[in-house]
Amino acid sequence: MTDTKEKLLDAAERLIGEQGFAATSLRQIISEAGANLASVHYHFGSKDELLEAVVMRRAGPVNDRRLALLDRYEAEVDGAVPVARILEAFLLPMAQAAGSNPQFVRVMGRIVAEGMIRAVIEKNFHTVLSRFATALRKTLPTISDEEFRWRMLFMQGAIAHTMCGTPGNDFEHRILLLVRFLSGGFAAPPAEVK
Amino acid sequence: MTDTKEKLLDAAERLIGEQGFAATSLRQIISEAGANLASVHYHFGSKDELLEAVVMRRAGPVNDRRLALLDRYEAEVDGAVPVARILEAFLLPMAQAAGSNPQFVRVMGRIVAEGMIRAVIEKNFHTVLSRFATALRKTLPTISDEEFRWRMLFMQGAIAHTMCGTPGNDFEHRILLLVRFLSGGFAAPPAEVK
DNA sequence: GTCTATACTGAGATAGAC
DNA sequence: GTCTATCTCAGTATAGAC
């Protein structure tokens, strides 16, 4: 990777994490990176694709660790893995990545919260997301497909808001609290349909 | 209210609900309203203040109904109101407002999700939000202040995502599911701190 | 008081010279 | 690969018509 390209990624990650995607201009990013405006479009194509590159640079290792954790938890039990364990396997690697790079977690939260490049995210995270959805579904066989889908959405919203909606860098702590809360939510009896 | 002003509010509400705030340009709004660009700044001052006006036009009746419902539920019981009832009192009036105006609910979801004009929202909703926070706290006296604050945030994220992150207009149905999920979350035992 | 026309600044994107 | 110049479109501001 060229020096300019990496500097652009670093600057974009920091600024987007702090201010959000929409509020961060390319001119701000190139100024911090010491690069030229056109270099963004040369290396990435567009502002959206720069964001995608920021995500992809860190997402690979995090997703690998997620799948490894889920594998381990599945091996530890007979049958279905408890909800809390599945959520932990999904969320902890992100929090741990935040240790070495706190801004990246915020960028991920911003992306979900701002509804950015949904297609890109689904493309790049499809494998890991479907693995976790399947595991959760196996643990929760009694609720309807429709309610399961809604609960997944509720969870997404809570996660996004937790990652970017608040100051502070102690992500592991807040994720412990979040896992408890979401576990309670998934354990709730199905809502009766009137 | 002048004809132009109301047409601007209608157009803004519809377009922002459909596309989000950042993705909707003033030129789009005035084109749909059949108005002039400068009329926005004459009537509202800025794009942000136009959004605030869109919110305030509908928020009053919804908040009144929220407080009335909470009053009723509090009168029905001795002591603390169940979590599900409190959440219902908060969420159902919004869903019912969606019956006559489906876009408004999406606008509200967008605002939280896009992190727009947080100060404005807090100013205008301070009364109703603090009333509901107090009621919830009374129902949940055993968890710590810190965990309570986090759970409120988890809830905010789930609500925002539910309101704007999905197609379809059957808000009452999804809110029944959401209330169950959140009730389960609030009922979860506190996470032990390591 | 209300609205129109127009100009200003800054955004992302692009073509072409080097 | 990099940089300059330029394009279009965004939000904003103001002068002046009615």
Please outline the helices and strands:
The structure is a homodimer of 194-residue chains.
Chain A: H1 3-19, H2 26-33, H3 37-43, H4 47-76, H5 83-100, H6 102-113, H7 118-139, H8 145-164, H9 171-187
Helix pairs in contact in A: 1-2, 1-4, 1-6, 4-5, 4-7, 5-6, 5-7, 5-9, 6-8, 8-9
The structure holds a DNA duplex (18 and 18 nucleotides).
Question: Can you walk through the features of this model?
Answer:
- The structure is a homodimer of 194-residue chains.
- By secondary structure, chain A is an all-alpha fold.
- Chain A is built from nine helices and no strands.
- Chain A is elongated.
- In chain A, 44% of the residues are buried.
- The model of chain A has no long low-confidence stretch (mean pLDDT 91).
- The first copy, chain A, binds a DNA duplex (18 and 18 nucleotides) through helix 3.
Give me the Rg of chain A, rounded: 18 Å
Which residue ranges of chain A are poorly predicted, with pLDDT under 50 across at least 5 consecutive positions?
none
Q: In what range is the share of β-strand residues of chain A?
A: under 5%
Q: Most extensive chain contact?
A: A-B, 41 and 41 residues
Helix content of chain A: over 70%
End-to-end CA span of chain A: 58 Å
Report on the biggest sheet of chain A.
none
- What's the quaternary structure here? homodimer
Shape of chain A: elongated
